[in-house]
Give the backbone structure.
Amino acid sequence: MPDARMIEFRSVSKTYPDGTVAVADFSLVVPRGQTTVLVGSSGSGKTTLLRMVNRMVSPTSGEVLVDGQDVAGVDPVRLRRRIGYVMQESGLMPHRLVIDNIATVPRLNRVPKASAHARALELMELVGLDPAMARRYPSQLSGGQQQRVGVARALAADPDLLLMDEPFGAVDPIVRAELQAELLRLQRELRKTILFITHDISEALLLGEQLVILRTGGEIAQVGAPLEIVADPADDFVAGFVGLTGERRLVVRRVDGVDIVVDGSGRPLGQVAARG
Amino acid sequence: MTWVMANLGLIAERALSHLGLAVPAVIASFLLSLPVGWFAHHYRWSRTALLGAAGLLYAIPSLPLFVLLPTLIGTGVRDRVNVIIALTLYGIALMVRSVADGLDAVGVPTTSAATAVGYSTASRFLQVELPLAGPVLLAGLRVVAVSTISLVTVSGVLGVSSLGLLFVDGFQRGIVAEVVAGIVATVLLALAVDAALVLAGRVLLPWTRRSRPQGSLVTP
């Protein structure tokens, strides 16, 4: 039975050479097989925390454990090859065909080209890309398609852990909603451990099984399931951040014998179909 | 024209000899500029000094260099190695900046993404940074190639065989056609090598030609 703790942050801090304290003292367990979302505004240290997991950033103090092992003692290149990474603006290699981009990590691990390409084509289907796009360059794809390629690349070596750094932040709202739905579908199928960061609370509430709401400097305001946080926000900061003092402050009104729900600005959201 | 027709063999021989001096020098200056340019790109503090020093090489007058080098490295004045080394130095002077600029142009998001997905430093340089610097490297290499082919002619004064020897010889013996043939052949050779480089770029850098989105694409 593998450890239920996929990632463990133990009192990590990060002070940059210019004196900026990105993270003061952060501890968290990221459970295996679930999506954990770190949500906070800029300056909350969420990107720094994510990048500590694959040693793109080294903590000033404290340790980060992946699979029970302190990453400081693991070769960073090997570590990164067993952790999928999806970033904003896709981070694809512009000079390599889509299929070669997806096959990057298996090829770096010396998997023969034919089997790496076969796997890449399977992944294109899995993430909803037409395999006919395999022989295009990333610049010939739309932003949404590029993000799908980014997800396929992250899955290519079948890692247990995926790090997602605001992956849907740079696409338009309609495409973002599609990609979010696609990620939920994939995650039902694959049950990976996903550490996802975003500044968008709606995205966090939709995707997260465990939600971590951050103040500045990586200070945890509240950790819990989305329902718990909405039902019982720890303080005014969390309530404000989640929108419980604004748009998500909903009111049930009875109009012509029907219960309807109205949001904070008076906009009707829908009818109450059932309670419970 | 009669002189040219009568001496086609000689012109061809001199042209080959010319290439034999220029091509090794261009290749050597490209290869030697890579580590220096990478250093200037990677360690910003060294950039000004390295690019400045490389640029200064170009300020050395070519004829004295051709004459001085043999005494420094112990070869004969007419030794082709002297000429190749001197031309390599001039090539480096031009190429180091192209390497540094080309690597700079790759952009931090791409190199950082490459690191994050698991490229090692060496594989990242060879498989990501170098190819993406390709267009700038190619532009620099074209200038080096053309300039080297033109500089080779100076060695004609020393009597080293190249197209330069045609116009030195023609000048001394008062054969205008030979002088003109030397100049025209040098220009033609430079154009041919430049065209070959452009062609090589099309083959080796295919993504630079297919960067526009195609009409049939539908979002997402």
In short: The two ends of chain B are 65 Å apart (CA to CA). Residues 8-42 of chain B form the longest helix (35 residues).
